[in-house]
Design brief:
single chain; about 260 residues; 2-enoyl-CoA Hydratase, Chain A, domain 1; 6-stranded mixed β-sheet; 9 helices
Length: about 260
């Protein structure tokens, strides 16, 4: 299956998903809003794809959010539209595998969804972040709510309320915890690939359960999160990888993990 607004490429165990509307600042239009869920479904279903990288075409804008001239589709018209309409990111599509955002330019407005929902965020030294929703009379809500899980509320408020009149540069985003690493523009994708390959070496089942435990903790009180984490530890003990890992270590050989969907 090919895409009109995206590029989906495999590099060994790593899927690279590129928002490919450079002439339109990689904005999400009606077609892209349909293609993104399909791309994430392909990644989740492919047992050979262990980690995904999401990036933007070109080096000026990672994603400028919704295309106001050709808006993303919603499940119902007007005020009847529901939150389920927004299925742009891996998290919004229930993806269980790790996702790295390689932010290679401006992440603006709705483009912040991809940053807020990524497991790890790398940015080029020229990347920036802004939210112009209120400047065009729209409410800044979904993106700031998710961003507040990654960085201090004051920084989120300032970005949302200044309506794009200020830009947070990559260095400031790193200091505040929104970005995990800042690299030169020409090193961004190689660094993201190297990181993805490191992650891909480990048990897919253990990685998925680890991701589930950590993100789940953001929505639970401490005691509940610890109980949920313990349940995932117990679940993994019954998986063949929990036997293969120690055996491979003792035998001084690389482990042979079960593919996603195999085992418990």
């Amino acid at each position: 299956m090919g895409f009109e607004t995206l590029r989906y490429e495999m590099h060994g165990p790593v899927a690279i998903l590129t928002l490919a509307r450079e002439a339109k600042r990689n904005a999400v239009n009606a077609v892209m809003s349909r293609e993104l869920p399909a791309a994430w479904a392909r990644f989740e279903a492919d047992p050979h794809a262990r980690v995904a990288i999401i990036t933007g075409e070109g080096g000026r804008v990672f994603c400028s959010g919704a295309d106001l001239a050709d808006p993303p589709e919603t499940d119902k018209a007007g005020k009847a539209a529901t939150l389920d309409s927004i299925r742009w990111t891996a998290m919004q599509n229930g993806v269980t595998k790790p996702v790295i955002a390689a932010v290679n330019g401006g992440a603006v407005g709705g483009g912040l969804h991809f940053v807020a929902d990524a497991d790890i965020v790398l940015a080029s030294d020229g990347a920036y972040f802004s939210d112009p929703h209120v400047a065009v009379g729209y409410v800044a809500a979904l993106e700031p709510i998710m961003l507040a899980r990654r960085m201090p509320i004051g920084a989120v408020m300032r970005m949302a309320l200044t309506g794009g009149l200020e830009r947070m540069d990559a260095q400031a985003a790193h200091r505040l915890g929104l970005v995990d690493e800042v690299v030169a523009a020409d090193a961004l994708l190689p660094q993201a690939l190297a990181l993805a390959v490191k992650i891909s070496r480990h048990s897919p089942a253990a990685v998925a359960r680890t991701k589930q435990a950590i993100w789940g903790a953001k929505e639970q009180d401490l005691g509940t999160a610890l109980q949920a984490g313990w349940a995932l530890i117990i679940d993994q003990i019954g998986h063949p990888d929990a036997t293969e890992g120690p055996r491979a270590f003792a035998e001084k050989r690389p482990p042979v993990w079960k593919m996603p969907g195999e085992g418990a």
